[in-house]
Amino acid sequence: MRLCFLVEEQYRHDGMPLEVIHQLRAWGHQVDVVWPGRSLIRISEAIQAGSHDAWVLKTVSGGPGLTLLEAAASVGLTTVNDVRAIRGVRDKALAAVIARSKGLPVPVTYAAARPEEFAEIAEAEFPLVVKPADGSSGRAVRLVATPDRLLDPVDAVEPGGAAGPDGAGGGLLIAQPYVPNSGTDLKVYSVAGELYATERCSPLHPAHAVRERQVPLTAEVAGITAEIGDVFGLDLYGVDILLGPDGPVVVDINDFPSFRQVPDAVARVSAAVLDLARRGTRGREASVREPVREVFAGEPVREAGREPEPEPEPVSVAGLPTPPFAVPSVPRTNWPAASMGGGR
């Protein structure tokens, strides 16, 4: 197969996706790499030629790569993930609205151009978690204890962004009530339907010692993660979940994340990219929902009570271990409003 990877400047030294590119080439596939932030691109020729089986994007929010991916999709080329799905989660304000409208346990979310505008929120809802709507990798996320702390300086600035007086890059901000938690984030990854749960230290609690590791995946969290894939039409994604006093709460969704602590992540993601390039990504509109699904950790998500469709010839990936846990059948859940109450 012939693939084109769009790799933003921020990820030019990252193992994900560079190691995936090396793996695909080692398997005999042709992989072209385009660096949107530091190269001249003959966009008409490169995209309209249609010489690639799929285009793959490792993007930063607001980076130039997403426009190139959208251009490829506009002429009918396969993109990984589906370009509409990426746009839906890259804007955290938009993602929060879509997810809550579908009944997912996402915090009440406020949006403002300037942090001081969040002072209109009732003091009872503080502390707030404030972050850029187009942020990534935990940058510029902060916990604001009281309204009078909204204008405190922000240490982290989005790459390439011009710092304003509040330290942010000048775009839209979102705020969510803080969910009391242990200081540990649960990060659940989906590799084309295979689910893996890991835990790591929360960016809001850097002093809390947490060993990053793979952990068992509960039926409730598996159901939420699979539902997010359905709602947004994502195939390769990660979900940040907090285990709050009222149950799991979704605080972030990322397309093509790092897949840290996923066993043999490079081989698994490489195989998934090839499979998606052959069969096409989900490409569903955000309003489309599939039937009740049966979810097993580390196994493809499929409709309950139906035999899976015949698979194409699989990519041989020797030595991949089977995850040591399984999740029973997960019904569609209507999460109560009480579980919607917080941010990171």
What does this structure look like?
Strands 11-10-9-12-13 form a 5-stranded antiparallel beta sheet. Helix 1 crosses helix 7. The protein is globular and about 55 Å long. The protein is α+β, with helices and mostly antiparallel strands and 344 residues long.
Secondary structure topology:
Layout: E1 2-7, H1 15-26, E2 30-34, H2 43-48, E3 54-58, H3 65-74, E4 79-80, H4 83-90, H5 92-101, E5 110-112, E6 128-132, E7 142-144, E8 173-177, E9 184-191, E10 194-201, E11 213-215, H6 219-232, E12 236-244, E13 247-255, H7 265-279, E14 293-294, E15 302-303
Parallel strand pairs: 1-2, 1-3, 3-4
Antiparallel strand pairs: 5-8, 6-7, 6-8, 9-10, 9-12, 10-11, 12-13, 14-15
Helix pairs in contact: 1-7, 3-4
H-E string: EHEHEHEHHEEEEEEEHEEHEE
State the helix count: 7
* Form type: globular
The radius of gyration over CA amounts to 20 Å
Strand content: 15-25%
Helix content percent band:
10-25%
Spatial arrangement of strands, main beta sheet: 11-10-9-12-13
First-last Cα distance: 41 Å
Average pLDDT number = 80
Number of β-strand runs: 15
The major sheet is characterized as: 5 strands, antiparallel
> What is the structural class?
alpha+beta
In short:
This protein has 344 residues and is of the alpha+beta class.
Name a few traits of the molecule.
7 helices; 5-stranded antiparallel β-sheet; disordered C terminus; alpha+beta; 344 residues; 4-stranded parallel β-sheet
